[in-house]
């Protein structure tokens, strides 16, 4: 059980995984009832391409989300302040957060969720999404991963598919992905690429112990190694020198360098057929807004689409 969690400001509790997910379920129920949670309905199908399985989701409620986005002020920050109806708990950024102190991170539900119980770990104070992840960020992530065997991801920079400027990591409550068998090829001691996954990437196994699970220090160490392997540097202001996607479970971490946000058909110079790809595309989970985007991806080829935004 992990110390330092806070459901109601000032009231700290030990929190087991059952308690955290029960809290997420409770907040989900009330947020649905109040209309604060705007779940996006999708249809899911499995696509096999040259022996590699992908999960392709098509949005059926895209128009409603699109209209909501168009009505929003471009400078609007949904995390400052965050929406109280979506609040799950505070998350400590280190083991030394004193009792009663305000934690630097907050866990909230993703307002426009495709997957149930999709959580966001946001910085309480404003930081840019283009800033590199820090030991504090990874300590917060480690606290959550100790309780939830989930999949974390971070979209850094506009080309990575980041939709908000305020720094936030995302967590799905299950770590299972279509590419799981391929990720078993990552090594313990050095960054490596998986040959079957043709997009640019580097990954490593995380040091794992059932009693401690990944620590913030271990996550930060592997992240720093992978950043160096991709030639991505961090400036004095915290800015990363290039956009990328970071994905991690309790067992592995992968970084994907990005050159473009969207994939288009070869003859589409205007980008009208563009399909935006975020971190989840690189574990085999792709999302399209309509049939036209689905057809674009299938014509381009799913693995080729992933490669085209990382070259």
From TrEMBL:
Residues 13-177 form the Ap4A phosphorylase 1/2 N-terminal domain. The keyword ATP-binding does not apply. The keyword Membrane does not apply. The active site is at residue 168. Residues 196-309 form the ATP adenylyltransferase C-terminal domain. Keywords: Nucleotidyltransferase, Transferase. One of its GO terms (biological process) is nucleotide metabolic process. It holds the Pfam family Ap4A_phos_N. PANTHER family: AP-4-A PHOSPHORYLASE II, PUTATIVE (AFU_ORTHOLOGUE AFUA_5G14690)-RELATED. This is ATP adenylyltransferase. It comes from Kipferlia bialata.
